[in-house]
Amino acid sequence: MARYRKVDPRIWNDAKFSSLTDAGKLVFFFLLTHPNMTALGAMRHSIPGMAAELGWSLEAFRKAFLEACAEGMARHDEKASFVWLPNFLKYNRPESPNVVKSWADSLELLPECSLLDELIQHVKTILEDMPKAFAEALPKTFRKTMPNQEQEQEQEQDLRSTTSDEVVPSASPPHGGLTDTPVQLEPETGQEPAREDSAPKRARVDDCPHREIIELFHETLPELPRVESWAADNQAQLKARWREDGTRQSLAWWGAFFRRVKASDFLCGQVAGREGRPFFATLSWLVKRANLGKVLNGQYDNRGPRTGSSLGNRNAMAAQMAIANRRQHAGS
User: Fold this and answer.
1) 287: which DSSP letter?
2) Contact (Cβ atoms closer than 8 angstroms) between residue 64 and residue 28
3) Which of 31-35, 223-227, 249-253, 324-328 shows the lowest per-residue confidence on average (mean pLDDT)?
4) In contact, 20 and 71? CB cutoff 8 Å
5) Which helix (H) or strand (E) segment is 229 a member of?
């Protein structure tokens, strides 16, 4: 049976896609149309294996592949050989509940890892915007695979109803710009502070550069609250995000991630949140696993007005676009 993939021609107008080099664009289409790509938009594959398929050198393929990862168009767990295109289901939605039922076969082909948990949660989010029959058709294996993830989602409030300690009142805007005061990094639990006379240890490949990432956060997002102290639990969260995905082990990836945050009006306090107060995302909030996943999955990208229902949101967005088109024609 033939398998097809939908490609929106508007991809050539997409800023992220346009920012890729020719090699990066080819690799993205290679992933999108790969024979092993499942109906969930993920597959088991490794960078060396994909490079060999194209006949490219490992270095050339990795460089092009990381371009797509840096823009959030692809995600990868190198240790688990897990490759995922987060927007795949956005353009390849199931055409019937029976298609959703068949996803159990695709799930069995994917290796277990933290990205798989995020994919499963993403699938559930996609189905929430579709008729009820689609969500009811979701195989039980999806629910059994993620008990910890579901518990985490239940315990943590959604960003749009965030608690008051995460909200920075508009009357006290966050400080911007870098200062000469260094960020205080508290020693992690169970570790002694480094002594000045201690011999330097050889840095491991996955050692997380906390200071550099914090400085990049300040430089890219001066409108958000500064990091004055980086506690041990914050260090643990950032280190976990750094290590769980090989593509994140570069400052270029974090720079692209912070630019995506900057493009979100909601995360940068440009949209009224709960009780009319704006929300300003903190670095400690962003590096939490669930929150980072939401940002990468586009849940806080600007989409126009929110009405409280999926149909209402779509209608409001359509009306907004129609008004914009009328204004454009009136001015021409």
Assistant:
1) T
2) no
3) 324-328
4) yes
5) strand 229-230
Task: Give which of 313, 331, 310, 311 is closest to 321, Cα–Cα.
Answer: 313
Helix (H, G, I), strand (E, B) or coil at 275: helix
- Phi, psi dihedrals of residue 279, rounded to the nearest 5°: -110, 135
DSSP H or E stretch at residue 30: helix 22-32
How far apart are alpha carbons 44 and 150 in whole angstroms? 24
- Between strands 75-77 and 42-44, the pairing is unpaired
The DSSP code sequence of 182-219 is PPEEPPPTT-PPPPTTSPPPPPPTT---HHHHHHHHHH
Higher pLDDT, 159 or 202: 159
Host H or E run for residue 147:
helix 147-155
3-state secondary structure of 280: strand
Residue 263 structure tokens: 């493009």
pTM to 2 decimal places = 0.51
Report the C-alpha gap between 80 and 296 in whole angstroms: 19
